[in-house]
Amino acid sequence: MHLISASRRTDIPAFYSDWFMERIRAETVSWVQPFNGRIVTVSLAPADVAAIVFWTRNFSPMARHLQELAERGHRSLVHYTITRLPRTFETHVPAASTAVARFRELAGRIGAERVLWRYDPILISAETGVDFHRRAFESLAASLEGATRQCTLSFAQVYGKVRRNFTQRALPLPDPDLELRRRLAARLGEIGAARGIEVKSCCGDDLLGGSVGKARCVDREQILRLWPELEVGARPSPTREECGCFHSWDVGAYDTCLHGCIYCYATRNRAAAQERHAKHDPACETLIPVAPPGR
After folding, report:
1. What's the pTM value of the predicted model, to 2 decimals?
2. Which of 67, 51, 64, 57 has its CA nearest to residue 17?
3. Shortest CA distance to 78 belongs to which of 1, 152, 185, 154?
């Protein structure tokens, strides 16, 4: 049985839930490999899928499909991002108070062990220094206590897309030194532990220690703890340096998320995402229709 990631490349629950459910009903899904343009197809038959790992900032559009997913025999976990970063950096995400309410509602339906909080990324700037993150994390941890058992954190990475977005807005690039990152991560780990939330570092092994463990965002062992009857063949398959993830099939597409986060590695900018979103067809096998060969 394999694992499905839906998706590191875009927010499928927020913007493409109807398409995803069409693929669930068809029991097959296709996507375009971003580096070679090949179309890949895998089974979504419940007998072939150990679990679906969702990534989102707004699960509400997908929440109405939870009963159908369960009735069809699908198991799922949800990575749910809430950061409280200002609109300077996240232009179109739900307000934190709204996100917390939706998070708690989802946890009430499927259980706290299956809703995983992401405080990700930690972005250090003039507006969002160490004290900002300590206060924001403490407030969110208090609001989410009992609704989750895990929080994944990471610091913003300056990829090419990110550099362009910050430069165009005349914003300094986020580049905190290691000692600052270690001190802040350690403090957030302590705050989380006091609320019954285990804090884990994604792709940042230099932050490990004390109350901060290593994140495995697609984690075969976690899935087997939830559903011990499964046979999951996934092996470790890091997506980048210090990644702890197991192999999954990611069914999303780059440049399709409309949240407008300027630090995002998966979307050039919101205008590009809007252009691609306009081409989206919920009945298509791929998230964005693929032009026929030769066109």
Report:
1. 0.96
2. 64
3. 152
